[in-house]
Amino acid sequence: MASSGTKPEKTGQGLFARILGSRAPVIAVPYLWLLLFFLAPFLIVLVISLGDIALAIPPFTFKGGIDLENYALLTQDALYWRSYFSSMQIAGLSTIITLLVGYPIAYGMARAPVQWRAALLMLVILPFWTSFLIRVYAWIGILKKEGLLNLALESIGMIDAPLTILNTNVAVYIGIVYSYLPFMVLPLYASLEKMDRSLLEAASDLGCHPLKAFWLITVPLSLPGIIAGCFLVFIPAVGEFVIPDLLGGSETLMIGKTLWVEFFSNRDWPLSSAVAVILLLVLVIPIVLFQRHQARLAERDG
Amino acid sequence: MKATTKLLATAAAAAISMAAMAGLPARADEEKVVRVYNWSDYIDEEVLKDFEKETGIKVVYDTFDSNEILETKLLAGKTGYDVVVPSAGFMSRQIQAGVFQKLDKAKLPNLKNMWDVVQKRTEVYDPGGAHSVNYMWGTTGIGYNVEAIKERMPDAPTDSWAMIFDPDVVSKFKDCGIHVLDAPAEIIPAALRYLGEDPDSKDPEKIKKAEELLMKVRPNIQKFHSSEYINALANGDICIAVGWSGDIFQARDRAAEAKKEFSVEYAIPKEGALMWFDMLAIPKDAPHPENAHKFIDYMMRPDVIAKASNYVFYANGNKASQELLEKEVMEDPAVYPSEEVLEKLYTTTAYEPKVQRVVTRAWTRVKTGQ
């Protein structure tokens, strides 16, 4: 579905451009969107981050001068870099687990009989029909002490005392892997489905072991899918707030929560704006790398 | 990413509201609407219906579940609300920031019904009650699962902060789950009180002492959170929660309704506990200040506030309502403490921004254990 969908989309775009007579308006729409809903708010945050906290409406002032004091504070307190680092760590490990879980799923889907694929794809997308928040809440019911998981394990005699999973980092990993799995499976499926299977047949004819053939042929050919999937999981996971808040324990330190505390508990809009600006920079770098990779890919395909 | 988007959205909203800050003049004849922003699960809906029936003013009612959310909206300005219900400590700071208008006491004849005991204490936050009247008040104490505690420590000091702050005691309950409010402004004063210090201390050295005590007991605490403990306590997932009185009564009632094999109790620690107040106030830019006054005056009617208290199980600041309260509310010493206990309850004031930062840092270290 994903790969067959790209072609009509291209011709559709061409048609759209022809109707308008010129490309410029078509290009202007997304740029205007970005300008209005990304760049303008970002500039507001950037400006606030240069001010000082004040007891007023709104709670910041530029009377103390416009300076980088808040950014300096970020470097002085270990809390912030620890939060950034811990967020990257949690997001990184979650991405690896998601890849390990998602790859066999995508592989199975791509190898399934053609008439099944649409249904399988549907099953991957299906969770999106329920609110993300409700699905994370459902995990509380599964993981808690008197929850479904512990009851099931106890009833089959695997454990004597209930496991404490909820409110630990383990629950955060489970939550992130579960929530972001479709974002990993879909690009993987798209690239695996496109693969020319006669390559594997040729390898087998030449006496290559299936495992080796998988490693030498399938994995490299699915690399674009792996990279796309990893970015789609890693980037939102770094700034994740809801999952660590609901499933995580007190020791779960993530930048999203640190930012919440600065903004709501400390009412320090300038400092939390600085945290957000740095977070954005931390995330923009992988996005730029990703874009470059995509561009290179497009060149090769085109 | 999500947090960033949320922040961006808030910042954009702030910018828009700044642009619109010119403000609208109050109209002489207001439309028949009053917009109220109150805590969740904090009113008997019938009270609102009765008000609509009597005055013909429609109540638009929204809820929040933390002071921080309310404060952020108020400080961004232009909330569109006519009546809001901050806790007193937060409110005193918001008054300084110029968030609220002065009440027109000529429009509030029911002020005569208010209880001087509560009024005297709220004076600290709002001198002369110029900006606010009390809605409900309560305490921050300890909720516990009676059976789970008995099983682990038959002679547990359930009436003392030692339940949480004595490492020898609290470690006995680590396995059954302990939740503590994620509210440094309530837990640090409790720790200071247990140490025999002034709970309202703003001295960084003293706050450091509270932090050290909390650090010692934190390995036993499963989570710092301000609302999950209601369900967790009611379901038996945890056995101790440091929380707000009314919330723990809710957990107690839910456990009883579900016919659980255990019961939940609430204790005001004998060392003393925080007495907090939720106050009715009118933002400066409220679109319907006339109706807001009418609403506040209505809430000060003894029969009305008694109905509200009977429903939510919180004490109110209205003396005249006390004879109209149900027995199980009025005679429950955990809701209306005895004179003697009342003497031991303390109040706290807001931290200055600089001290606030010290407090938040200490709190983050306690929560994360690093």
Structure description:
Chain A contains 14 helices and two strands, in the order ααββαααααααααααα. In chain A, a hairpin with a 6-residue loop joins β1 (52-53) and β2. The two termini of chain A are 21 Å apart. Chain A is globular, with a radius of gyration of 24 Å. By secondary structure, chain A is mostly helical. Residues 1-10 of chain A have low confidence and may be disordered. In chain A, 34% of the residues are buried. Chain A has two domains: 1-48, no CATH class; 68-301, Orthogonal Bundle (MetI-like fold), CATH 1.10.3720.10. Helix content of chain B is 44%, strand content 15%. Chain B is of the alpha/beta class and 370 residues long. Chain B starts with a helix and ends with a helix. In chain B, strands 4, 5, 6, 7, 8, 9 and 10 form a seven-stranded mixed beta sheet that branches. In chain B, strands 2-1-3 form a three-stranded parallel beta sheet. At the A-B interface, α2, α11, α13 and α14 of A face α1, α3, β6 and α17 of B.
Question: How much beta of chain B, percentage-wise?
Answer: 5-15%
The helix count of chain B comes to 17
Span of the ends, CA to CA of chain B = 25 Å
Instruction: Bin the strand percentage of chain A.
Output: under 5%
Looking at this structure, what is the CATH superfamily of the largest domain in chain B? Periplasmic binding protein-like II
Biggest sheet overview of chain B? 7 strands, mixed
The major beta sheet of chain A can be summarized as: 2 strands, antiparallel
Q: Total domains of chain B, how many?
A: 2
Tally the beta strands of chain B.
10
Order of helices and strands of chain B: HEHEHEHHEHHHEHHEHEHEEHHEHHH
Q: How would you state the average pLDDT of chain A, rounded?
A: 87
pLDDT < 50 runs, ≥5 residues of chain B: 1-27
Query: Could you tell me the radius of gyration of chain B in angstroms?
Result: 21 Å
- Strand-and-helix sequence of chain A, N→C? HHEEHHHHHHHHHHHH
> Would you identify the CATH H-level superfamily of the largest domain in chain A?
MetI-like
Q: What's the rounded overall pLDDT mean of chain B?
A: 90
Q: How would you describe the shape of chain A? A: globular
Q: The CATH topology of the largest domain in chain A, please?
A: MetI-like fold
